[in-house]
Design goal:
By secondary structure, the protein is α/β, with parallel strands linked by helices. Helices cover 37% and strands 19% of the residues.
Length: 393
């Protein structure tokens, strides 16, 4: 049969029938250890009983009613996210891309409302990824994603990541905000220095800018804290983007903001048809139930540190294959000496699913529920494939 799908993905010739915890079971009957998590989405693994129950219970009651009416589960999730963070207000949408677009609109609207409409430009960092809309690719400034989509949306200036001096020198009278990922995902699993994040808060206060964190990939417990910015002292933002792990696999995104930053978004200035629907809100609340349960993030941090040490040892034993480990929590990357795409295919053939990234890096994004035994299982596969490289050479 002719494939009717648009040719926008270089898909592997592999499909899955179902999932169980940290594993996916292919239509071929084979079991795969999932260190991709749908690109950091299935934070609780596959078919987590609490998440399944929340979704199926809600599905039997109400799917959609629109934001023309109150959605109590959304009010509850917003209150819980605000209580757990810096935020006062939350806007729900369907994806990280929509959260990014909403945050950019929020930023421009804020300065218009306070009488400074000339301040519209947002400073971003090289290596960033903020989605694939025309605005998202313009914000990141990556030539790979901009090619063929001109003219490019205006309103952004890109500076070196982790370089405070270059960032400060980029601030002008039309600058409105700074938007960064505390840990860059697509850019190669590059964490911001904690001091850099703290300094960003200082710079934004000094120049009257909004500080926007894109925690679409690194938020919701992936670094061992609920939000990645919590690792840095006094670095809370004015606006934060969430998605991916927030729904545990169900599409949901969110913009969190302070009361001050969000005051420009009055009724009629922004909206969404499906965002914040009862199904998504049931899933978001269920994920938050698990991730904020006593001891859960402590265990994530413990297992993440074990994985880090085991990967560090792996790199030391196979310097011809791997260059370094980097990242934070369970958002880790192996920068490779060998070709990363080839290694990803070989890991997959050996039963381990991983994800590529820039700078010849392989992303390791296991579900937050992985055990020590599953860490060892993954390392056995990584080690076996890396050892075979030396034999082949």
């Amino acid at each position: 049969m002719t494939d009717a799908l648009m040719n926008t993905y270089a898909r592997a010739d592999l499909a899955f029938d179902h999932g169980e915890g940290a594993y996916l079971i292919g239509t071929n009957g084979r079991r795969y250890l999932d260190f991709a998590s749908g690109i950091a989405v299935t934070a609780l693994g596959h078919a987590h009983p609490h998440l399944v129950k929340a979704l199926t219970t809600q599905a039997a009651k109400l799917w959609h009613c629109s934001n023309l009416f109150r959605i109590p589960a959304g009010e509850q999730l917003a209150a819980r996210l605000a209580e757990a963070s810096f935020a006062d207000r939350v806007f729900f949408c369907n994806s990280g891309l929509e959260a990014c677009e909403a945050a950019i609109k929020l930023t421009r609207r804020y300065f218009d409302v306070i009488g400074q409409p000339q301040r519209h430009r947002i400073i971003t960092c090289q290596g960033a990824f903020h989605g694939r809309s025309l605005t998202g690719i313009a914000a990141a400034g990556n030539p790979k994603y901009l090619e063929g989509f001109g003219p490019h949306a205006d309103g952004f200036r890109t500076v070196a990541f982790n370089n405070l001096n270059e960032l400060r020198s980029a601030i002008t009278d039309d600058t409105a905000a700074i938007m960064v990922e505390p840990v860059q995902g697509e850019g190669g699993i590059r964490p911001a220095a904690l001091q850099f994040l703290t300094d960003l808060r200082t710079v934004c206060d000094e120049f009257g800018l909004l500080l926007v964190y894109d925690e679409i990939q690194c938020g919701m417990g992936r670094t061992g804290k609920l939000f990645a910015y919590e690792w840095a002292e006094a670095a809370a933002p004015d606006v934060m983007l969430l998605a991916k792990g927030l729904g545990g696999g169900f599409p949901v995104g969110a913009v969190l903001a302070t009361e001050e930053a969000s005051k420009g978004l009055a009724p009629g200035t922004h909206g969404t048809t499906f965002g914040g629907n009862p199904l998504a809100m049931a899933c978001g609340n269920a994920v938050l139930d698990v991730v904020t349960a006593p001891g859960f993030l402590t265990e994530v941090d413990r297992v993440a540190r074990l994985l880090w040490h085991r990967l560090t040892d792996l790199v030391a034993r196979h310097p011809h294959v791997f260059a370094e480990v980097r990242g934070a929590g369970l958002m880790l990357g192996l920068r490779c000496q060998a070709e990363a795409p080839r290694l990803i295919a070989e890991f997959r053939d050996a039963g381990l699913l991983t994800v590529g990234a820039a700078e010849n890096t392989i992303r390791l994004l296991p579900p937050l529920i992985i055990s020590e035994a599953q860490v060892e299982e993954a390392l056995d596969i990584l080690d076996s494939v890396a050892s075979a490289q030396a034999v082949a050479a």
